[in-house]
Amino acid sequence: MPSPARRFLILGLDGGTFDLLDPLMEAGDLPFLRAMAKDGVKAPLTSVYPAKTIPAWYSFATGLDPGELGIFGFTEPDGGPGHSKIIQSFRPAEAVWDRLSRTGRRVGVVNFPLWAGYPVHGFILPGMFSASAPTYPGTLRAEVEGDIGGAYPSELPVFKDAERDEWVAGATRSVVQRGRAAAALAEHHRPDFLFALFRETDRLQHQLWKELARPTDQIPADLRQFWRAVDTACAQVDRAFRSTAGPAVTLVISDHGHGQIHSDFLTNRWLEEAGFLRFRSDPSPLGRRLFGSMFLTAQRIPGVARLSRTLADVLREGRGASLANLVVGDASFERATGRIDWKKTVAFSYPVPEGIYLNPFNPDLATPERRATVLAEIRRRLQAYEPAHIEVLDPAQLYRGRNLRHAPDLLIRVDDMRTEPRMDFAYPQALIRDRPNYFCGSGTHRMDGILIGAGGGIRAGANPGTIRLVDVAPTILEGMGVVAPATWNGRSFGARLGLAS
C-alpha cells in the first residue's frame, strides 16, 4: 500500500493547453512548469463533453461523468422551455476532498466554483459565483485578506476592447493575489490535500487568443508577463505546500483545453431553417436582423471595424445593452419563446448550447417510437449539413452514468469544437464563419487539457497513456492510501506514474 503520509497539491489552470504552454516553456517564460515537466510527467488530459467549466471541474472533483452528476453546462432546465437556473452544486455527490476529510486528512480548497463553503476537516474558500460567498470556516476570508493585505480577488469584469490593457493588468494582479492567498493558507493550515484554481487563464484566453496564438516573440509583453505571473504563483504555492515534511505530489491540471474559435453555429436558427422549430411570428424583428448583418459587414471594413468594437463595448452591458434591446430587440432564446409555436415545434436548443432537446409540449412526440424517429431525422440532417462538420452524440452512449433527467436528447460538436454552438437569434443565418470576435472573444474550448506532475514518487518521463479528467480524483485517493468508490467513473492511473508502488 502507498504511504498514507503522501500529500497532494492540485493546481488548476482553467483552460490550460500545451498549444500555448509548450512554446512559453521553451522560451523560458515558465521555469517552474518547465522544471516540473522535465522532472516528472507531462501528458494531455481529456475533458468531459461538453468541455465547459462547471461540468468539467465538477467531474474532476467527484470522479463522476456528467451523466452520473446530471450536470451538462452552467445551467439546467427549470420549468418550461426558456426557463433555466444556474447549477447550484455537485452535491449530493462526494468530492475527493470530502472523502479525504472523512478519513482524517486535512484538506484545503481555494477558488473552486462553489456558492458557499461547507464543513470539512480543513477549509474552503469558494470562487467564481460570488465575491462574498460564505467560506468555511466563516473567518477564513478575513484571515486571507489580512495575509495578502487587501480584498481576495473576485472574477474578472466583463472585457471591453477599449480597456484591454487595464483588464490584462487586473488579471495579472488577480493571479498574484490568488497565489499569495493559497500559499498563506498552505503555510498556516498545513493541509494534506490542497486544490487551488486560477480562473484568470481561461478568461484571458477566451478574449485574447489571437494575440496568444502568435509566435512567442510576437506575443504582447503584458500577456507574457501574465503567464510569468501564473508560473510564479504556482511555484509559490508549491513551495509553501512542500514546507511541511513528508512526500508531496504536485499536479497541474486543466478542466479542458483552448484554441481559436473560427465560427458560430446558431443551433436554433438551424432548427428553424430545417423546419424543426416553428414560430407563430418572426423571432427576429427587422431591426435585429439588420443590426446583426451590419456587424458582420462592418468587421470586414478596416476603418469601420474599430468603430464597431467601440460600439460593442457600449452595448455589452448596463444602459447600452438595455438601449440595444429597446431599439433592435432581444435576440435571446428566452425572449423568443413567447413567439414559438409549441404545438408544432419538434426540437429546440436550450439551456445547454451543445444540446438539442425534443419538445415535450408537442403531442406528435408522445410515443418512444416517434421520438426515436424524429431524433434519427435530426441526426441525419445535421450530419449531412455541408457547410460544417457536425458530430451528433447520444448522451446515453456518451456517459456511463444514467442520471440523464436534465440531459439534452442529442449533443452536437461542430468542426471539432472550432465552431461554437449558440442558442440565440442574433444573426440571420445559422452558420457565421466570419464572426465578430469583439463580442465573444477569439478563443474557445478544446477537449484536451493538461497534466503536469512531479514529486512524491512520480517517475521522470513516465508515460501515463490515455488519461481522463475523471481519472484524477481516484489517482489522488490511491496515492494517499484511500480507497476510491467503485461507483466512480474514473480509474486511477497512479501505477503508471509510480504512485501506487
Description:
By secondary structure, the chain is an alpha/beta fold. It folds into three domains: 7-260 and 445-497, Alkaline Phosphatase, subunit A; 263-283 and 335-434, no CATH class; 285-330, no CATH class. Helices cover 39% and strands 17% of the residues. It has 19 helices and 18 strands. It has helices at 18-26, 31-39, 53-62, 66-69, 96-102, 140-148, 164-189, 200-212, 221-241, 267-273, 286-298, 302-315, 318-328, 333-336, 368-383, 395-398, 437-440, 472-479, 494-497; strands at residues 7-13, 41-46, 75-77, 84-86, 107-113, 122-127, 193-198, 248-253, 257-260, 263-266, 347-348, 355-358, 390-393, 410-414, 419-422, 431-432, 443-446, 448-454. The strands form five sheets. A seven-stranded mixed sheet has the order 2-18-8-1-7-5-6, with helices on both faces. Strands 11-12-14-13 form a four-stranded antiparallel sheet. A hairpin with a 6-residue loop joins strand 11 (347-348) and strand 12. Helix 6 (140-148) packs across helix 7 (164-189) and helix 7 packs parallel to helix 9 (221-241). The termini are close together. Mean pLDDT is 90; it is low at 320-329.
Q: What is the averaged pLDDT score? A: 90
Please give the alpha-carbon distance between the first and last residues: 7 Å
Strand order of the largest sheet: 2-18-8-1-7-5-6
Biggest β-sheet description:
7 strands, mixed
Structural class: alpha/beta
Q: Provide the low-confidence segments as ranges.
A: 320-329
Using only C-alpha atoms, the radius of gyration works out to 23 Å
* Count of DSSP-assigned helices: 19
Instruction: Kindly identify the CATH topology of the largest domain.
Output: Alkaline Phosphatase, subunit A
Strand content: 15-25%
CATH superfamily of the largest domain: Alkaline Phosphatase, subunit A
Number of strands: 18
Give the CATH architecture of the largest domain: 3-Layer(aba) Sandwich
The CATH class of the largest domain: Alpha Beta
- The helix fraction, in percent, is 25-40%
- Structural domain count: 3
| Large-scale geometry | globular
